[in-house]
């Protein structure tokens, strides 16, 4: 089991954001006084910079669908209210011309549906909202793409193997996981903070993973939670996000709605939007509920936010192994450590404080549950704890009658014991 886990964490840690450009960098300047001629036809050719700009323009047109309404958020985001049937997922050949599926049966043991669930998203603070029949989509800008190396890598986890020891660059985790059985979903409430991310090409996230595959090139994952990613979003706000892949982050999958995949059905939640308010050290604490489960009738994987707020679903046909079930569920935090300054990063995980500090100081997951073959929510059994570098980020597990199974996790990164 340990060998399988190590291999999984290696594969799942492919995202060192040092991508190799598929073509010249988007911000490269064009050589001056250069004439490009096609020798066979003597017709002028587009300069590489012009070609890149055309690709950029075409991609933005493809991903930003025509809205019926636009909302300007106080944090700088532009939220487009796009007709549900025009969202990016319906560009997929197997979804063209279709409409979203009807809501599925919720897992047995779910909390009662709360019709006034707080969504805790900055763009909605003004009280403005998207009309029924539309979904809110965070508009992708030219600046968003220019922070990456190419249109092809934008919104994706780079496929690159990395070293996972104290001297290498890569991902570091503080997580709990279960494996060895068949799983059909997972649920938890995740404490929301604003951890400092000290390098543009690093991130800090807290999420639920639903995993299946042989831990090689056919790894399937569904991921949901919150993340701080300056490269993807251009700021240090914690943002509600999703991810999926069916080939170990190679060619398939993406964040949020940045490719054809996840089908959103909700008009209140903007995937990729900033979460507000956020927890404060020794102050008020806020968390978001995340549930991912497999619809027993149609086999799609649904995502719920809070109590009963269905966000949408990943169609079953996207996956190979997850078309059947998951064989691992994981909860916890992850950061990228690029060692760009020659030492361990100071990027924080969770609240930026170690698990031992407890409530109002360390970040937590509470009410950890898994979904079984009969669509029952159950507390996980035989939990395994893993902290790659416990002097940098650690984790503690507990259980009580109020929070059920819970964890505290996180840390400051670089310190005297984490050089």
Automatic annotation (TrEMBL):
The lineage of its organism: Eukaryota, Viridiplantae, Streptophyta, Embryophyta, Tracheophyta. It comes from the Eukaryota. This is Uncharacterized protein.
């Amino acid at each position: 089991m340990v060998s399988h886990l190590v291999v999984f964490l290696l594969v799942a840690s492919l995202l060192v954001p040092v991508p190799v450009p598929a073509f010249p960098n988007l911000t490269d300047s064009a050589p001056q006084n250069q004439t490009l001629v096609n020798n066979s036809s003597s017709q002028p050719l587009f300069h590489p910079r012009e070609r890149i700009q055309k690709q950029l323009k075409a991609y933005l047109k493809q991903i930003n669908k025509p809205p019926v309404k636009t909302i300007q958020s106080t944090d700088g985001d532009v939220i487009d209210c796009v007709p549900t049937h025009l969202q990016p997922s319906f560009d997929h050949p197997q979804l063209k011309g279709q409409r979203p599926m009807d809501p599925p049966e919720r897992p047995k043991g779910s909390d009662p549906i709360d019709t006034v669930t707080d969504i805790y998203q900055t763009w909605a603070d003004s009280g403005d909202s998207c009309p029924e029949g539309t979904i809110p989509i965070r508009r992708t800008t030219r600046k968003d793409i220019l922070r990456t190396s190419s249109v092809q890598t934008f919104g994706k986890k780079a496929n690159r193997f990395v070293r996972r020891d104290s001297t290498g660059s890569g991902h570091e985790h503080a997580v709990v996981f279960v494996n060895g059985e068949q799983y059909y979903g997972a649920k938890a409430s995740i404490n929301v903070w604003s951890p400092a991310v000290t390098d543009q090409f690093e991130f800090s996230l807290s999420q639920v993973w639903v995993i299946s595959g042989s831990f090689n090139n056919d790894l399937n994952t569904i991921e949901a939670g919150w993340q701080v990613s300056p490269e993807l979003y251009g700021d240090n706000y914690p943002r509600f996000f999703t991810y999926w892949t069916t080939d170990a982050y190679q060619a398939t999958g993406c964040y949020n709605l940045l490719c054809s995949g996840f089908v959103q059905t909700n008009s209140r939640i903007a995937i990729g939007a900033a979460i507000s308010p956020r927890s404060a050290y020794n102050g008020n604490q806020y968390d978001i509920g995340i549930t991912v489960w497999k619809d027993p009738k149609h086999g799609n994987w649904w995502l719920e936010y809070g109590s009963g707020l269905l966000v949408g679903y990943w169609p079953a046909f996207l996956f190979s192994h997850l078309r059947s079930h998951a064989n691992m569920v994981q909860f916890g935090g992850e950061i990228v450590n690029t060692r760009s300054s020659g030492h361990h990063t100071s990027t924080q995980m969770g609240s930026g404080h170690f698990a031992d500090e407890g409530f109002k100081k360390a970040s937590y997951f509470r009410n950890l549950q898994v979904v079984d073959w009969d669509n029952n929510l159950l507390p996980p059994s035989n939990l395994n704890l893993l902290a790659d570098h416990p002097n940098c980020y650690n984790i503690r597990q507990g259980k009580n009658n109020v929070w059920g199974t819970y964890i505290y996790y996180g840390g400051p990164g670089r310190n005297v014991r984490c050089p």
